[in-house]
Write a structure and sequence with these properties.
The chain is an alpha/beta fold. About 40% of the residues lie in helices and about 15% in strands.
């Protein structure tokens, strides 16, 4: 929630807002967007009475948020009818409200509403009023709930008892989960220290070192044999041999020496001809010239000289999972005969074993971990040992009951993911499933979200960075600055950055985690919001990104007719790939140049 959304319902009858934070580290002016008729003034240490509302902050950093003492002094200056907005720098789950609760009660202050705030330094806020009688409470929308004093008191008392009962159960459950997590971590550490696994990994490393030394020796022998053959065939060596033979037997050697030297000279001149003839009639190479090589070579290879920006997986996966993962990651499927080689040569971010691929009725790894296929269990153990010896993360993707392949639990995994592999958005039908299901899948259940969790565990590049959007705008006055702030912060899929000529007055965006930039956008996707008078629903960017992930298009927006979720020859671009946006090409030429255009209605049909 934005600060202005929390504050505005409580400004009825308020003419002055007193800012007690003006001299501190926080400037709240860009957050307020006060309506006409409400004046903002700095604190002058005067009493705060009817028609006035005071702003104060409290948080873990006294230099930035202030401390309890300053809040107490401000509460002492409140008079009946005065109101206040207390902003916390603490997270809602860590709110130390008990530190100020007694002071609020002492000074007859009733908290009317509390809500979470989405800013970098302010995470919660509470509206309160100084009163001599019990005031009606407010609902989630900031509207007062009509009731008399007794009904309000009973509501407060009942909710306090029930919420305390529920919170105690939640706290007990959290403690149980923490205890279980600690025990699982200890068990995992014990499994990692298992001597059998360590000995197996050491044996694998030693074997690989010996094999590498043997290959190097064979290569060296081949090079030396080639050099010896070259030296033996050289004219210099043959002349030297003839001279040595003549020196050993001068009587016979001196007579034969001129003839031998003449023959060497003639053979040297004939050598190019003989080489040409040999090239015309190629024959099999001598067996000694072939260097023995016991290495297996992969059928395909990939090479890039740029930093890795995609998740690279080597996995024991089902056909469907491998196909879905390949849309967002580099996937190398491991087979029993080449799994160790692929792990060594492809340098994956993680080695993933999907439980469904082992428990399935078909597939190369079917029955692995069940105890019914010892050879597969041994191959899988060697593969995991190779991955751990090479420093790659090993992950068990437990998308089926653990009892389906209980043998997998005995291996030492770096991480275990207890979730399904998600749904690939292109497998959904927007017309049949509806936008709401597409949005839910995009945010919570898509394959990309699942892989992002895997990337987080393994330290690989964040896949969700591909969903970042830059909003390009040029607000001309304070009203357009306020409109741009409201539109950006109101989006369910919030932009990562806003590119403007002048960032003045947009501090609330930066406080909410949206980067302000001048110049060129840097996010993968760009939305042009130059016209701030256009109506943009809060689902606009979410629906556009859902459609992009569904279609893989380069530009999205309304088509020439009433098409929805279909490829079209032209669109009014609302979301464009950054490279296309910076190309400067007119939208009319995009389709003719091979760019994919996808029609998405900006608003749902009524």
């Amino acid at each position: 929630m934005r600060l202005t959304d929390l504050l505005r319902p409580h400004l009825d009858g308020v003419t002055t807002v007193v800012d007690t934070t003006a001299g501190g580290g926080l400037r709240l002016t860009p957050y307020l967007h006060l309506p006409t008729g409400v004046e903002l003034r700095e604190d002058d240490e005067q009493p705060v009475g009817e028609g006035e509302l005071v702003l104060l902050t409290y948080g873990p950093d006294p230099a930035l948020h202030g401390d309890e003492e300053r809040c107490r002094r401000t509460l002492e200056r409140l008079r009946p009818g005065g109101r206040g907005l207390l902003l916390f720098g603490h997270r809602p789950a860590e709110l130390p409200y008990h530190a100020l609760l007694d002071d609020l009660v002492t000074h007859r202050c009733q908290v009317l509403r509390a809500a979470a705030l989405d800013y970098a330094h302010l995470h919660a806020g509470a509206v309160f009023a100084r009163t001599d009688e019990l005031l009606p409470l407010h609902d989630w929308f900031g509207r007062p709930v009509p009731s008399d004093g007794l009904a309000t008191a009973l509501r407060i008392a009942d909710e306090y008892v029930l919420s305390d009962f529920v919170s105690r159960a939640v706290r007990a459950r959290a403690l149980d989960l923490e205890r279980t997590a600690e025990e699982a971590a200890r068990a995992l550490d014990a499994a990692r220290d298992d001597s059998t696994a360590e000995r197996l990994a050491a044996a694998v490393r030693e074997k690989e070192q010996l094999a590498a030394a043997l290959r190097a020796a064979r290569d060296r022998v081949g090079v030396l044999e080639a050099r010896v053959a070259m030296l033996e065939g050289s004219t210099s060596l043959r002349v030297g041999r003839a001279l040595v033979a003549a020196a050993r037997s001068p009587r016979r050697g001196a007579v034969r020496l001129p003839g031998e030297l003449y023959g060497l000279w003639r053979g040297r001149r004939r050598a190019p001809v003989s080489r040409a003839a040999g090239a015309a009639k190629p024959g099999p190479e001598p067996a000694a010239a072939v260097v023995a090589d016991d290495r297996l070579h992969l059928a395909h290879r990939a090479l890039t000289s740029t930093p890795r920006d995609r998740l690279v997986l080597a996995g024991v996966l089902t056909d469907r999972t491998a196909e879905d993962f390949a849309a967002d990651a580099v996937v190398n499927r491991l087979l029993p005969h080449d799994g160790r080689l692929l792990v060594e040569r492809t340098d994956p971010d993680a080695v993933v074993v999907q439980l469904a691929a082992c428990a399935g009725e078909s597939g190369p790894w079917s029955l692995a971990g069940t105890g019914l296929a010892p050879d597969l269990d041994r191959k899988l153990a060697e593969l995991i040992a190779e991955a751990r010896a090479s420093g790659r993360a090993t992950v068990l993707w437990r998308d089926a009951p653990a009892s389906a392949a209980p043998g997998l639990a005995q291996f030492a995994w770096d991480a275990v993911l207890d979730m399904d592999t998600g749904v690939r958005l292109s497998r959904l039908d927007p017309a049949e499933d509806g936008r709401e299901l597409l949005r839910e899948a995009f945010r919570q259940e898509s394959t990309r979200v699942r892989l992002a969790e895997l990337a987080r565990l393994t330290g690989a590049p964040d896949l969700l960075a591909q969903r970042r959007i830059s909003v390009v705008a040029a607000p001309r006055d304070a009203a357009e600055v306020a409109e741009l702030t409201a539109q950006v912060l109101g989006q369910l899929h919030r932009p990562a950055e806003v590119v403007v000529p002048d960032p003045a007055g947009l501090g609330e965006l930066e406080a909410a985690g949206v980067e302000l930039r001048q110049g060129q956008p840097t996010a993968p996707w760009v939305a042009d919001w130059t016209d701030l008078a256009e109506e943009r629903p809060d689902t606009l960017l979410l629906d556009l990104m859902c459609a992009q992930e569904y279609s893989g298009a380069d530009a999205l927006g309304p088509g020439p007719a009433d098409e929805d979720h279909t490829f079209v020859p032209t669109v009014r671009p609302l979301l464009v790939r950054r490279s296309l946006f910076l190309s400067g090409l007119p939208p009319e030429s995009w389709s003719g140049r091979g760019h994919r255009l996808f029609a998405v209605r900006g608003k749902e049909p009524a």
